[in-house]
Amino acid sequence: MTTHDPAAVSPSVLDRARAVWSRLTGTDAEFAPGRTNVAVAPASLLSPPGWTGLVVLGDAALVTVPDSPTAGLVTAALQGLGPDELAGELAEPGRLRERLPFHDLLGPAHLLFLAPALFRPAARTADVERVSGDDPELPALLDRCGPGDAAESALAGITSTAKAVRQDGVIVAAAGHELWPHGTAHLSILTDPGFRRRGLAAQVASAAVADALDQGLLAQWRARSPASRRIAHSLGFQETGLQLSLRLADR
């Protein structure tokens, strides 16, 4: 399995990725190469409200916290920890708990981005169609997959049309993107549990990626599971960073 390798990502893609995630902080916080920056950002979208959000992109890390006391605590806890070391601890949150005790966490998630020249479309073995966002079969697919998979996929939040595969009129796999800042297409993919391991996720994802690239958008893939990362890799996405959100323990 490919791991976090900032050297493999083109500078232009990395710069765009950092601009996107900097915007999500709601402040003027920026990624600084070789540094781990901590910013007070109560409205940050890097994490749920009141939590601490950590993102590593390439050789730079950005951490957002809800208030100044938490900023002091986190800065002290991460003292001397560079972005590469922080990426290692985000991948294994048990190690990070020793520095930053926490009650709950979301993640870790791998962030992958695609340079257009590296796109490798998936081979088609099924008919992939364009589906309107108000097609009633899309919420039906979400229901069949359950709240956990549905939320992780973020398919309900896409702003594009969906690319879908049907079986007997029922949508069994779908993908699309939500438009994020700086012309970024945040990909969402979901497959009916009864139709997984048939290559359908790769096919609908490939069609959704092609649509995003045709619009000149930066394609972003967020993956928690090895299976999701494998699909992203097969399409040419590169490991660019990691994301984690923490609800810190009271001290």
List keywords for this structure.
alpha+beta, 7 helices, globular, 251 residues
User: Mean pLDDT, as a whole number?
Assistant: 92
**Helix/strand/pairing category:** alpha+beta
Estimated share of beta-strand residues? 25-35%
Spatial separation of the terminal alpha carbons: 38 Å
Q: Supply Rg.
A: 18 Å
Main beta-sheet strand count, sense and barrel state: 10 strands, mixed
Q: What coarse outline follows from CA principal-axis ratios? A: globular
Question: Which spans of ≥5 residues are poorly predicted at pLDDT below 50?
Answer: none
Spatial arrangement of strands, main beta sheet:
1-3-2-10-4-9-8-7-6-5
Helix percent band:
25-40%
- SSE order in H/E notation? HEEEHHHEEHEEEHEHE
Would you kindly provide a written description of the structure presented here, covering whatever features stand out?
The chain is an alpha+beta fold and 251 residues long. Helix content is 32%, strand content 30%. A 10-stranded mixed sheet has the order 1-3-2-10-4-9-8-7-6-5, sandwiched between helices. A hairpin with a 2-residue loop joins strand 6 and strand 7. Helix 3 crosses helix 4 (93-99). The mean pLDDT is 92. This is GNAT family N-acetyltransferase. It comes from Streptomyces californicus. Residues 126-251 form the N-acetyltransferase domain.
